[in-house]
């Protein structure tokens, strides 16, 4: 009996509370309330649709901005020449894997640095980044105007000389490695180097050289600026694809592409691209971007 009372009493209380809340309403009031609920739900649906479209637009804008800026910044850059020269001496796939791994890590780190700046009000970061884009564009136009036509060839020779020194140091180290024959006891130079060790060394060399060359580079600073004002996923994907495109060209084309690229022309085009993205701030408000 006690258990039955424990079950029924809450049900009875709920029944009376329900009647007190809704029992005094007229049918017209109930109909009006339902109409208001349906209209509010439709308003929510209408508000969600523009928001999703705005998010897609923000991702696309960030993707295109990151992709185009990286391409014009990396073509003819030091990292481009590193991949091109190493691919002429070592397996292309290993060189590409080491270089793109370093560039992908650098892109993610740069986006993290830029995203940390979002604690500042968006209006400030938006216009500050726009001003930096304009300054970069003007500086690239100035550098391209006064740049020597042989600038790319000089950069190529500098990177080639640096890599040749590293190769000579490695060969000197391996040639002085001595081992003792366990059977005869004769000490001789080691001639055995596993393929895995060789590929690992090439991968690490491509990774370290590319990472150090990219640190503090214009493309890294640009990625940080983009991450502070654009959709971070679009910046990451666009940046990695841009680096993959440039590194792939360097690895496949090698010295031929490096010699045919006019660094002066690429620099001028890059300055124009930077200025175009800076001018978009005149037509897009900070609240309209994602």
Automatic annotation (TrEMBL):
Topology in membrane: Multi-pass membrane protein
BP GO annotations: Golgi calcium ion homeostasis; Golgi calcium ion transport
Domain of life of the source: Eukaryota
InterPro entries for this protein: GDT1-like, GDT1-like_CS
Main location: membrane
Entry's transmembrane regions: 47-72, 93-117, 123-141, 195-213, 233-253, 265-284
Cellular component GO terms, alphabetical: Golgi apparatus; membrane
Localization terms from the record: Membrane
Signal sequence coordinates: 1-23
GO MF annotations in UniProt: calcium ion transmembrane transporter activity; manganese ion transmembrane transporter activity
Sorted UniProt keywords: Membrane, Signal, Transmembrane, Transmembrane helix
Pfam families per UniProt: GDT1
PROSITE patterns recorded: UPF0016
Similarity-based family: Belongs to the GDT1 family.
Stored PANTHER family: TRANSMEMBRANE PROTEIN 165, TRANSMEMBRANE PROTEIN HTP-1 RELATED
Protein name (database record): GDT1 family protein
């Amino acid at each position: 009996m006690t258990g039955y009372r424990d079950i029924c009493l809450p049900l009875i209380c709920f029944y009376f509370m329900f009647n007190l809340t809704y029992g005094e309403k007229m049918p017209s009031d109930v109909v009006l309330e339902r109409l208001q609920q349906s209209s509010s739900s439709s308003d929510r649906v209408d508000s969600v649709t523009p928001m999703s479209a705005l998010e897609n637009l923000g991702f696309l804008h960030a993707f295109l901005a990151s992709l185009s800026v990286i391409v014009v910044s990396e073509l003819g850059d030091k990292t481009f020449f590193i991949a091109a020269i190493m691919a002429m001496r070592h397996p292309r796939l290993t060189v590409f894997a080491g270089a793109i791994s370093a560039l992908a890590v650098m892109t993610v780190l740069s986006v993290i640095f830029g995203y940390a700046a979002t604690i500042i009000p968006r209006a400030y970061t938006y216009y500050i980044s726009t001003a930096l884009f304009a300054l970069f564009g003007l500086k690239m136009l100035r550098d391209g105007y006064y740049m020597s036509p042989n600038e790319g060839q000089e950069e190529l020779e500098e990177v080639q000389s640096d890599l040749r020194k590293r190769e000579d140091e490695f060969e000197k180290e391996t040639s002085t490695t001595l081992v003792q024959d366990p059977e005869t006891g004769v000490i001789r130079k080691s001639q055995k180097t596993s393929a895995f060790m060789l590929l690992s060394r090439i991968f690490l060399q491509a990774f370290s050289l590319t990472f150090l060359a990219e640190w503090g580079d214009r493309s890294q600073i640009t990625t940080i600026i983009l991450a502070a004002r654009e959709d971070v996923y679009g910046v990451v994907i666009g940046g990695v694809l841009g680096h993959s495109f440039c590194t792939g060209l360097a690895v496949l084309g090698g010295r031929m592409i490096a010699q045919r690229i006019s660094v002066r022309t690429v620099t001028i085009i890059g300055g124009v691209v930077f200025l175009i993205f800076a001018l978009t701030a005149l037509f897009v408000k900070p609240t309209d971007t994602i």
